[in-house]
Amino acid sequence: MVADAWLALGDNERKRFAPCFASFDPTDCAATSHLSRMYKKYPKMWRAVGEIMCRHDDLTTMLMDKEVPRVNHPAMDRVFQFCIDVGLPALVHHNADRVGDLEGGWGYKGEVSEMLKKYPDLKLVWVHAGVSRRCAEPNHYDMIDHMLSEHPNLGVDISWVVWEDVICDEKGEVKQQWVDCVQKHHTRFYIGSDNVAQFFPIKDTTNNLLAANITKYWKLFERLTPEAAENVAYKNAYRMYFENWDVPTGEGGKGERRYMRQDPMYDTECLDPAAGIFVPGDKELDTHGKY
To answer: Measuring CA to CA, which residue among 101, 160, 84 is closest to residue 129?
Structure first.
């Protein structure tokens, strides 16, 4: 579906999007067969593998009678080696701690450290800084500082609930300890929206739902040095996903045939936040399929 949408774009639009792919079971030792097929089909298009869902609060709890997805599962060895072989970063959602664990420490941090040491050539982005709902310690910044200092191949994403629940205080201000941590490791942090097919409200297109999830970071940037602010805001992401990318062309008969521009086969979908369901754009938004 990602390839379908990206291949429908013109050349000027393509270079603004860095497609990533996942959609596999992290406990499946044959998962790399899917990755290999998708990569070989569009090798110049993909820019990362992920978001890979491993330990994830209540989602993991629902799998307790089955194999639990975790970053150091044997199947992930093959995934990480694949990422190294093709030169793509891996974006991994993996809780640093158990849900509701208030005893101190980080029960699952060691699993992440294990893989970072095992694969020093792997570029791994720890999605949401290892935080999910009810999965963080008050001094979470100390753990992140330690992990970044110990593992040069680690990057940290601060999107989703880690921002509101952990990085900011009850007044919505960025905690000084987090400012210090980000400033110290400013070439290793990434921002994001974590929006899921939800960029404009269904009816009122004057309100951009994506914008608020980006501009909220301005209060952090204002407290960093200009160099650090620029790195976290966009330069780190540019270096990882866009720098030195030979973007496949698709218009005017240029480029390889597999990357030719083509009409999308899937309906446009977006999340209706009021109803909590996805709606197809050409059927339920308005007469023209626009939103």
So the answer is: 160
Cis bond leading into 13, ω under 30°?
A: no
Q: Can you tell me which residue has the tokens 């090798």? A: 43
The pair of structure tokens assigned to 272 is: 């209706």
- Domains, the chain, in order of start with CATH, read 19-244 (3.20.20.140)
Other beta carbons within 10 Å of 111: 20
Q: Going residue by residue through the chain, which has 291 residues, state the pLDDT in tens, using 9 for 90 and above.
A: 899 999 999 999 999 999 999 989 999 999 999 999 999 999 999 999 999 999 887 777 676 677 889 999 999 999 999 999 999 999 999 999 887 666 777 889 999 999 999 999 999 999 999 998 877 788 999 999 999 999 999 999 999 999 999 999 999 999 999 999 999 999 999 999 998 877 777 667 677 888 989 999 999 999 999 999 999 999 999 999 999 999 999 988 777 899 999 888 887 777 777 777 877 765 454 544 443
- How far CA 90 is from CA of 197, 214, 228, 241, in Å, comes to 21, 22, 23, 12
What are the CB-based long-range contacts (under 8 Å, 24+) for 105-111? 105/137, 106/130, 106/137, 106/143, 108/55, 108/70, 109/143, 109/147, 111/55, 111/70, 111/71, 111/72
Backbone angles phi, psi at 53, to 5 degrees: -90, 110
Using alpha carbons, select from 5, 14, 4 the residue that is nearest to residue 255.
14
Q: Where are the alpha helices (DSSP H) in the chain?
A: 2-7, 11-14, 31-41, 57-61, 74-86, 109-118, 140-150, 161, 176-184, 209-215, 218-221, 226-230, 236-237, 281-284
Residues contacting 262, CB < 8 A, separation 6+: 7, 8, 250
Question: Which token pair is 97?
Answer: 């701690």
